[in-house]
Structure formats: structure tokens, C-alpha cells
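Honest question from a wet-lab person: if I give you the sequences of every part of a complex, can you actually get the arrangement of the whole thing, not just the pieces? Trying it with mine:
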Amino acid sequence: MVQEAIGIVPDTRSVPLAWRNLVANKRRLIRSSAGIGFAVLLMLVQLGFERGFFDASLGLVRQLDGDLFIMRASKYRFGAEDPFPRRDLDAARNVGGVASLVPLYAAWQDFFWKDPVGDKSYLIQAFAFDPDQSVFLLPEVNEQRDRLKQEDSVLVDRRARPFLGMSGDARETTINGRTVHIAGSFALGPDFMSSGTVLMSDRTFAGLLTGNRDNPAALPIEFGVVKVQPGGDIAAVQQALTTALPKEVRVLSKPQLIAFERDFQADLSSAGPIFWMGTFVGFIVGMLISYQVIYTDLSDQLPQYATLKGMGYETRYLVRIVFEQAALSAIIAFVPAWLLCLLVYYVIGVLALLPLHMTLALTLLSLALTIGMCLLAAGLAIRRVIAADPAEVF
Amino acid sequence: MPLHIAWRILMHQKGRTALALGGIFIAILLIFVELGFFIAVPRGGMLIYDHMRFDLLVSSNKYIFQAESWQFPRARLDEVGKNAGVAQASPVYLGGAKWQDPGGGLRLDIAVIGFDPKARLFAAPEVDRQLDVLDHPDTVLVDSQTRPIFGTLQPGRAVDINGRRVTIGGQYDLGTGFLGLGVMLANEANFFRFFPTRRPEAVNLGLVALKPGADPDQVARELRAVLPNDTQIFTRPELSVHEVSFWTTRTGTGLIFGSGLVVAFVVGIMVLYQTLATQITRQLPQFATLKAIGYSNGFLNGIVLIEAVLVMLLAFVPALAAALGVYSVIRGETLLPVNMTAAQLGAVFATTLLMSGISAFLSLGRLRRADPAEIF
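Yes, you can. This is the full assembly:
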């Protein structure tokens, strides 16, 4: 008798019940996947915006070609003008381990670029340096650096916001009312403060700012870009520089400079909290939608579960099936949503000039969150399965 | 009659209806929140203007937006003052200054608005009450929404503005908009102490107040005819259109939050469709019975549509309440003016009606399958 009873119940490992449950009703499968899929898309889009916002804000900082950066101690963000006099760098020349020290000049509030094909002028950010030195990692900039030696020549960001007209064929425009030659372009992209970026030599910069290009050394410096000798200990050089330099300036490593700007954007800028909140709302809504879908599916299949129970399957087995089914739903919905998201990222990235990239980290994070929220939903809904009474279902 | 049946269907299984309401609640809330974000940025850009008293704005013809306003000759305002409809034309000076504690620390950017206190340009009781404070030398009023990183804003605190020792005379609460992390008000004399290279002849904005009864559009037309083309005139509605279009089309934010809004709309339709389709499937026998006793397809469609609208209406109220809560959190976190306006409320209501219509239409296909012969 006992033998026979066991005989009715097939080997539970051989039947992929969760899978069969899921695909038994194709319409329901499509409906559920669409629901969870849109929840995933919502999360990915919001998460992508948040990452894109930070990537845009940190884009230029990451492209700086240096190991250590000397800046004024009172500077509170990368893009706030707070230059220091050149003499503050004097002591750095005698510090051991320093291979090169190049002044980087910057202006965020002083350069007005005229749209070459329109008649309006717009505020842009400008950086200047000695064209014989490499200050940016962008290969395009380093290839075209020599062209900046020509007077009043600039390199422009062809990914700048379109109204600036930096991506066109124009070879000439004016900055601060003075004619400049557009000697070439590079691809960087705008952030949430600057619509466009222009690079030039220190002489051109001095000319556009003060009218006198012959004495760039008199200009105050925004960043001292330090390269440490190959194989040198960056931390030790940083320590030595900090000791040698006046306390009006501070020395940051590149990761510290990136973290410095990231902290500003996350905590103080107006945009940071908006994106943070958007991501949070996306998660909450995504979780609620998933819960709704999983709960509805389980309720629909209550008779089947009750039957299994009536046949003698243990609650533990049913619970396992429910969780397996939830995880499978999550994965099935994730794949099309992920693919659709690639398209959304591409379109919005092009239109909004926001660097939206699908990364492995983003994929894994969102997959984990999707499976997590589906399992959580299953956990909340499982009471109904456990309580399913075979006698009542029919 | 369809209304009655739809109501009975909803009341029949209250648990299921609650679940459906939950789904639609989420969809509506999401629309509210995304719309809030979408509107927050341009409204943030309009914040300072919204709290200023003027009927017409004079600006340079190079004007881009509030924080990039360029300058025009002050003499243009004298010209404006000659118009019979103009009661007052006052200059406003805008500047970006460095704020630092006298003891050292960070040199923070703060926006300074310079104006003549007697012109009473700000529609804020706290500013009006403290206008005489502004006439003390090197004394300013600071917006209380200036970020905490600036330190205490208590009246009496001394700070260095562009290297000059200045006393905080008081606070007011307008919001900083997108002028920066902090905003302060100064009278003209103090403004030019902070910006010694600026000349009073070069004005950023001119605020024009009209005499009672004067028509802003009419006066704007007359002024445009007499002013040289180095200046331009905005009426309030024109200014609002200009600033909002700047923020939505010239920055990334319009597209980003606009696409969030579209995603919310699609998610909302999916959720609503899902809920309705499940309900119809469940009640297919009942619908088939109605069909068998002679009710038309149109009648059954009517029931579904009314059911969709009913669920939407029931979910709308709690979603609105939740949205008000979320808005206040966003206000606190981003310091942007995210408010529920009648227009917003109406827009979301119309959108959700449209959504329930679309999802009801999508789920009608299932109803066709209600075949009385097959059900039993």
C-alpha cells in the first residue's frame, strides 16, 4: 500500500514543474512577462539616467592626464573657478619623483562662444594649457595639440549641445567678440552645467581673457597637473608635495579628484537628488508591479497547486515550485526588457547627449533586483498556496 | 444599467478589486511623480521670476535664460519710463560672487541680486519687511534655502563676499531656483561694492510695472517700436514660454524626464490592461451568460469600459494623496518647487482616463471569446 502510494508520486526531480506551469498558458506568460518586463525597463532606465548623469559630470575629470592634481584648498567642486597664483607651485619643482608639472587654466563663467551659423552667443567652459604638454587623455586632443600653437586656434567638442553649432563645418567664429579658428574637434559631450567645451593654448586663453596673449604666465592657475616619474610612488609624492606646498593649495590623486566631484554632484547639486529619487521611485514601482504579476499568476494556478497537495505532495515541494516559478518569470521577463533597454539607451543617449551605457555591473545589478523582487513577491503570495484546500478548490 | 453591473462585478470579489486598485494606484502615482520631475526643472528656472513684481521684463537681445542674461544700457529704462502706461521701470543686477567664512574654508559660489529696495521688486512679505535692512552698508539678505554647506545664515553673522566683509542682515524664503547653491539680495550700492568692476550703466534685467488698467501686450508693442534692437521685451506669459522652452529643449533634463513620463504612461497601460484582462477572464462565464440571454456586444463592451473607469476613479484619490506626499519629499530633497497645480491635476486625470480607455479597448478582445455554448 505504502509502496503503491509512493508510486503515484513521480520522482519530483525529473519533472520541471515550475517551467511547465509557466509555459502552460502562453497568453498568461506573455502578459506576465510584459508586466515584469516593463518594471525591469523602468528600473534600468532610471538607473541608467543616474549613472549617465554622473558619467557626464565626471567625463572631463576622468580624461585628465595626470597622477596628482594641485588645486586651491578652498575649491568646492571641479567646475568652480577658484584659481591660485603661479608662485604657489614654485616649491613643487624641487619635490623628488615629480616628472612633470603642467598648469591647466580653466574658465566656466568668462567665455562666450558665438554659434557660427546663428547670431547668439552662449557661455561655454574653456580649458587652456601649453600645447607641448599632454594634459588630456583624449587621443584626438593629443593628435591635434600642435594645431593649438597657431594663434587664436581652438579645438571644440563636436558632441556639445547642438545649439552651439560646434559639430558643423564652420572653421571660424568668435569667442568674447574675438575671431577664433576652429582647428579641430574631439568627442566629449556636455554635462549638466556646461553646454560645450573648448580647448586652447595658454596664449590664446590669455588673449581672449585679458587682451594680452604675451604673458600667460601671469594668469592664475586652476589646476597643477602632476605626472609622477614612471614606477614612482604616487602616494609618497603626494605626501611630499603636500608638505612642500603652501597650505592655500591641496594635492589630490586622480581617484580623489573624481570622488571629490562625485560627492559634490551627489550631495549638493540640484540634479543629483532628482536622479537619485527617480531611481528610488523606479525600484519601488518595479517591485510593486512584479508583486502584482506574481500574485495574480499564483492565484490563477491555485487549483493546480491544490491538486498537487491533494495528490500528497509536501508543502515544502510546493513552496520550492512557487519560488522556482517566480525566479523563472523574472529571468524570462528580463531578457526582452534588457534588449529593449539597449534601444532606449541608444535613442535617449543620442537625443539628450547623455552617456548611457549598458555595463555588466548594471546588468547584474538589475537582474539581481528583478529576481529579488519576484522572489519577494512570491514569498508574500505563498500563504495562499500553503492554505490552498484541495476540497474547496473544485 | 452597465454601470450597475460593472459596480456589482467590482464588489463581488473585493480582494481582487483591491489588487486591481493597487496596480492602478501605482500607475497613476508613477505618472504624477514623473510629471513632477518633468515640471520641476523648468519651474525651478522660473522660481525667482515667479516671485518678482513686474508686468514686462526688459532684457538684452542676447538674453539666453535667467542665469545667462547679458546686459543692456540703463538708459533704455529711462526710455521705457516715458511710456504713458508704465508706472515704474527698475534695474536688476545679477552677479556671481564667492562666499567664504572669515575663518577660511571653502570659497562657495553665491548669486547676488542687486536692486533698489524702494522699488519693492520681490513679492515676498519677508523681503518687504526687511527692506530697510538692505540699506545698511555691506549688509545682505540671504535666501533661507541656501545650502547648509554655507553654514549658519543667522542675522549678524559676518561673511566674506568677494573678499569684502559683509553682515547677514536677515533671511527670506523664496528658493534658489537654478541661480546656484545660494542666493542673496543686496541694494545697488552694496552690489557695486561686491563687484567693483561692474558699472551701474550696464543692467541685467529691467522690471517694468504698469499703471492700473494698462494692457501689457499693448505697452510691449509700443516699447518694441521705440527701443533699439539691443534690448527685447517679454510679457510674463512670453517670458514663461521662453524659460520653460530653454529648460526643456536646451538642456538634457526635458528629454530625460519626458522619456520617464512616456515610460510611466506605457507601464500604466500595461498594469491596467493586465488587471482588466485578468478580471474579464475570470468573469467570462458571467459575460457569456449575459450574451446568451440576449445582451449585445456593445452592452458588454460598455460594462468593461465602465469597470475600467470606475477602478481608475477609485485608485485616483489615494494616488493623488500619495503623490502629494512624494512631492513634499522631492521638495525637501531637491529644493525645487514641485507643487500640485490644477493644470497638473487635470492633465494627470485626463491621462489616466485615456489610459483606462486604451487598456479597456485592448482587453475587449477577450470578451469576444465569451461563447455561451462553450462555457458550460
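Two things worth pointing out. Chain B touches chain A through 53 residues (CB under 8 Å). Residues 297-334 of chain B form the longest helix (38 residues).
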